[in-house]
Amino acid sequence: MDFGKMILNALLPIFVIMLLGYITGKRNVFTADNARSFNKLVLNFALPAALFLSIAKADRHLLFEDLKLLIISIVMIVACFMWAFFSCKKFFKHTKKEAAVCALIAGSPTIGFLGFAVLEPIYGFNTSTGLVIAIVAIVVNAITIPIGLYLLDPDDGSSTTTTGADGKPVPAKKKGSNAFLNALKQPVVWAPILAVIFILVGIKFPPALDPTFNLIAKANAGVAVFAAGVTLSAQVIRFNWEIIYNTLVKLFLMPGVLLIVGKLFHMEAENLQMLVMAGALPPAFSGIIIGSRYQIYVNVGTSSLAVSTILFMGTAPFWYWLAKLVAEM
Asked: What is the pTM of this model?
């Protein structure tokens, strides 16, 4: 495996585009308000289209071909996501909304953007590679993102009362009852869920519509990374214990628990290796996009993304070596 080629093809473009956004932000070519508009474009249109297209093309038989892989992926990725959420609140005393964005960053791998770019050069383009990427993409985009947006909702689950026309108290709707519905209204949530439903009921996505979806979907990665650079230019880049902790959760905790649990349950060797590498990917850009959209956890989140992406150059070879060693024992 040529890690130099992987870095050149997968990671260098991220740094170049992010640096370009950073420079234009510093020169006031684009402002933080422009970055929020870019993020709105990505979050409401480009990213939902990309997620829907990537998931809807999965095969139902392929999805359920390896139930062990499916169950371990769901349980352990969601567990890491919730650990990032609760530890952010407990250890660093953040609010619920800030912790939700933290979990979307520290607890979610960027499988949609870097999945094939990293796994295909190592393991080749085959059914197993597509299976692992599809399953992890569904977990991240159809499970953890909806959970994150639910936790991010400003409603806190409490109930209030209002005064009616007759002066008597009238129970208001429970705030928490709207939180889940608010999350489902977001295109970045309902698009991947709709794609999963298509898979489960056997609806085939018409190939004739590929060019239409691809045209907006291809704007996702480039605009998101560029916007992250512009956002970063308006922030003071930080490096503290919280950013170190977020990086450790994403680059070490998630792939570590996937490797341990997968080995304990005797996963097929190559699938286990690919799952570990998928879990070792840097944070998902969707967390940065969502945080920037709502102006929550922007500085720490963007800094965590930058640090994690840089360190991934060193951790990727480590996890490739360790996962191969453990899987073949």
From this structure: 0.75
Cα(215)–Cα(50) distance, integer angstroms: 10
Sequence-distant (≥ 6) Cβ neighbours of residue 290 within 8 angstroms: 43, 101, 104, 148, 149, 152, 188
Helices (H) and strands (E) in the chain, counts: 19, 2
Measured at the CA of 174, the angle between CA 169 and CA 180, to 5 degrees, comes to 160
Using CA atoms, how far apart are residues 315 and 252, in angstroms rounded to an integer?
Answer: 8
Q: How far apart are the first and last CA of the chain?
A: 20
- Classify 283 as helix, strand or coil: strand
Q: Phi, psi at residue 267, to the nearest 5°?
A: -65, 155
What's the rounded Cα separation, in Å, for the pair 102 and 329? 35
**SS3 assignment, position 162:** strand
* Buried/exposed 238-272: b ≥16 CB within 10 Å, e otherwise: eeeebbebbbebbbbbbbbbbbebbbeeebebbbb
pLDDT in tens, 157-208: 444 444 444 444 544 444 444 666 766 777 877 888 888 888 888 888 888 8
The Cα–Cα gap between 11 and 193 comes to 29
Read off the pLDDT of residues 308-319 as tens digits, 9 standing for 90 and up: 888 887 898 899
Q: Which residue has 């609010």 as its token pair? A: 95
Cβ contact 25:229 at 8 Å: yes
* Both structure tokens of 269: 């060797």
Task: Calculate the average pLDDT of the chain.
Answer: 82
Sorted by where each starts, the structural domains of the chain and their CATH numbers stand as 3-157+186-327 (1.20.1530.20)
User: What token pair was written down for 307?
Assistant: 């640090």
Q: Which residues of 189-207 are buried (b: 16+ CB within 10 A; e: fewer)?
A: bbbbbbbbebbeeeeebee
With bands split at pLDDT 50, 70 and 90, how would you rate the model's confidence at 90?
Answer: very high
- Alpha carbon distance 193, 132 (integer Å): 18
Is it the case that residue 154 has pLDDT exceeding 70? no
* Encoded tokens for 244: 């170190």
